[in-house]
Amino acid sequence: MAVGSAGALLGQALHLPAGVMLGALFSSGIYRLAGGDAGPWRSRYGQIGRLLLATVIGAAFGPDVIAPLQAALLPMMVVTTVIVGAGLALGWALARFTQLDIATALISTVPGGLPAMVAMAEERKADTTIVAAFHFSRLTTILLAVPALVPLFTSTHAATTATIPLTEPVGLWRTGVVLALGALGGLLALRVGVPTGDMIGPILIVGGANLLGAGLGPLVPGLRQAAMLLIGTAVGAQMSRQSLQKLREVALPAAVIILVLIVMGLLLGQGLALVAPLDLITALLSSVPGGASTMPAIAHDLGGDMRLVAALHLTRQLVIFILVPSLLGTLLRGQRRKRIATAKPACK
């Protein structure tokens, strides 16, 4: 955490887009590659950061978000279908032209969250190191490239600002209540097995209460910065020499896949801005297949609406968690039947 905090302060001092997150990611990643030990709490950093960020997002929800979210939901489902379909097609090609098995290839290329996709790989007996290396590379590339690319896409458009109403943060006592509610909602969602529960739970509980008029937000900006620090440190702490060595074996197809997903996301984002009542920055960051925790944080720094970005990314991840396991099960059952059918004549 000390290394991540130092990097976050440097990133902020250099005025980098999402500098707290990028600085923490780089410094903790370099520390890990240099042989540093992140300790047993490294997986908890990200979880606490996601709980905190989701609570901050939920506290920012209000009645003004309902209309644009409803209007954007159908177009975003189209964007989600295209992105997930592209990921599945790229996974099939990866398995076809490399030595990776179909489960490892598909889980590596479908753009879900890194921890959840690694967990899915473990469940399906895929190569978790390859999966982790692919998704880590995708997330870090997006975190580096998107803050620099989005201003280029928006430079010819009117300047946009975050649509979250500028109101005074709630007081200390109410902040404590909101944080407790967010943590409770996230932990309950994780306990019952909700995918990305540490993001969905707090947004549903705190955001739902706000939409009903509870007046639980917004929270002080420092909490969002703390969440970005924790998330960036957690992502960097997952870097390892073993992952880099594994990724080297499939470096070229991995680079092509990441490039295709980023370009497709940016183009789809432009289309989304044309058909939905979203500003261009929000539409771009909703469509680029980054993480449900990292893209909203970047959106706030670049002038987009982190609430809409979070809601739309969580929708995409839910589709992935529902679709991919059943699809993998069908494919693997088909492969087993083929192996059995080809083995029977040989036995005779």
Secondary structure elements and pairings:
Blueprint: H1 2-13, H2 19-33, H3 42-60, H4 66-97, H5 102-109, H6 114-123, H7 128-154, H8 172-191, H9 197-211, H10 221-237, H11 241-249, H12 251-275, H13 280-287, H14 294-302, H15 306-347
**Which shape, going by the Cα principal axes?**
globular
Residue share in β-strands: under 5%
The top-level CATH class is: Mainly Alpha
The major sheet is characterized as: none
Number of strands: 0
> How many alpha or pi helices?
15
Structural class: mainly alpha
The percentage helix is over 70%
- Alpha carbon gap, first and last residue: 62 Å
Number of domains: 1
The assigned CATH architecture is Up-down Bundle
At the third CATH level, what is the topology name? Na+/H+ antiporter like fold
Could you walk me through the main structural features you see in this protein, from its secondary elements to its overall organization?
This protein has 348 residues and is mainly alpha-helical. It has a single domain, classed as Na+/H+ antiporter like fold. Helices cover 77% and strands 0% of the residues. The protein has 15 helices and no strands. The longest helix has 42 residues. About 2% of the residues have low confidence.
